[in-house]
Each structure stands twice: as structure tokens, then as C-alpha cells.
Amino acid sequence: MVQVLEFVDVDVVRGHKEILKKFSWEVDEGERWVVLGPNGAGKTTLLQLASTRMHPTRGTVSVFEEQLGKVDVFELRPLIGLSSAALLNHIRGDEKVLDVVLTAAYGMTGRWREEYEKLDERRAFQLLHEWGMSTMINRTFASLSEGERKRVQIARALMTDPELLLLDEPGAGLDLAGREDLVKRLTTLAQDGAAPTLVLVTHHLEEIPPGFTHALLIRDGEKVAAGPLAEVMTEENLSTTFDAKLRLMQTEGRFMAVAAQ
Ligand SMILES: Nc1ncnc2c1ncn2[C@@H]1O[C@H](COP(=O)(O)OP(=O)(O)OP(=O)(O)O)[C@@H](O)[C@H]1O
User: Which terminal Cβ of the chain has fewer Cβ within 10 Å, N or C?
Assistant: First the structure.
């Protein structure tokens, strides 16, 4: 089995700020991880490292068993799908939905070639269909709702048929129905044996799709707990992570937490 991610004693320091401290974490092929933590915990920084967009200040990060700093990251990047708010800023509002997805095959945003491989076009159509966007392929990205944009972004992240899919807060800004639609689609993805290894970052327990297998809890750049979901999701771990006394509830394979009275 391939080790997809291996962080060993990773520090990330910017100015006087230690964003990650002695952080170690391993993700194996086929696992579905949720990364939970409060604002500023270091979750996006973790995804920046995992997506090879950032190198650690100290320690080592290996992606598909290749150590960052000793490998050409441009060889690794097609294996990694990333959907994040930062990437959203690079998508032009007047770009057509189909092109937003299609251009990922060429590692770019913005259509620049007139001719695309038929195979790529078919894959983009197929992904947009799977993510419920087939009726909107000729719309501009700017004209979409927040939920539709999120789905297009995930379709784009899947375009290169990656072996690792990183989703940074895909539920942010969605209303209740939009969130539930997203959770349902991510549940289907998580249960698909052919789907890539998944890492989903969120603040909200309600967004954890059934079928996710592992959890990483992070606070102030440090790991609180990591491992199989059922072992990690305890009131004690969550209370420590969010610095609040929490009551944890589970229903229909979903989690939620409220402040303890
Ligand atoms: N270049 C930088 N210089 C200084 N501090 C930084 C820099 N980049 C990030 N930070 C800080 O590091 C901390 C972790 O940031 P990060 O974005 O990884 O957290 P996060 O868990 O994703 O937060 P959120 O949930 O709010 O998105 C934050 O306090 C942030 O302000």
C-alpha cells in the first residue's frame, strides 16, 4: 500500500508565528480523513504542504513517498486535486463552467487553447454531470450560486483523475440544503472504492460525510488527536480542540456538537 502523506516533526514558521509545531501525521491509500479545528489552527497550512504548494521550515513532508525538497513538485501535482477558497480567486468570473473544469487537465485557469482533446471534454462533461451541473456547462462561473461554484470546483479538482483529493472547507457559505446536498455527494464519493484518498477540512462536525474513516483534530498548530474516526471523535478530544466544553451527538451516521450546560 502506498503511503499518500507522511509529515514528520513538521514546523512551519512565518515571522514570529509558529503555524505548525512538531507536527507528525500519516495518511495511507484509500483513507478518508476529516481535519477539524478552530479558526487559525493551521488546517489550510496543512493542505498547502500536502498539495506541495509550501515546504516546511523544519521536518519532512513526503507526498506519495517523495520528500518535498528532493522531488520535482510539478510531477506530483497532477496526482493531487485541490479545492480551496484561494484557488477560487484564480478563476475568472466570465469563464464558462465547462472551461473551468476542462482547463484543469492542463494545470491552468483560463481557456488558452482552441483545441482540447475529445477525451478531456468527455471527462469534464461526465464530472459536471456527476456533480449535478450538466445543465449549466455554458453558464459563466460568476453567474453560479455559492453551492454550484463549490460543486464545479470539486469537479475541477477531480479532472486530472487525482490519487489524492484535498477539500478545504467545501461547505463554507452554503445554506442548509446546499450543505446537505454536498454531504450527500461526498458520502457517495467516500463510499466509492475507486475514488481517490480524501482529506476534507472543516470547522463543522455536521459536514463530516458518513463513510469517512479517519479524523485529525488540530489546535494552535498542534495535533490533539489523529486516527480512526470512532476513536478520535470523543467529547474530551473535541472540547480540547475547540477550547469549550462540548456535548457530542451522533445520529444517522452524522455528528453534531453543542455546548455542555
Ligand atoms: N504568512 C503568514 N505569516 C504569519 N502568520 C500566518 C501566515 N500564514 C498563516 N498565518 C497564521 O497561521 C495561523 C494558521 O493559519 P491557517 O490558515 O493554516 O489556519 P486555518 O486552521 O486554516 O484557519 P481558518 O479555519 O480560519 O481558515 C493563523 O493564525 C494565520 O494568521
Answer: C
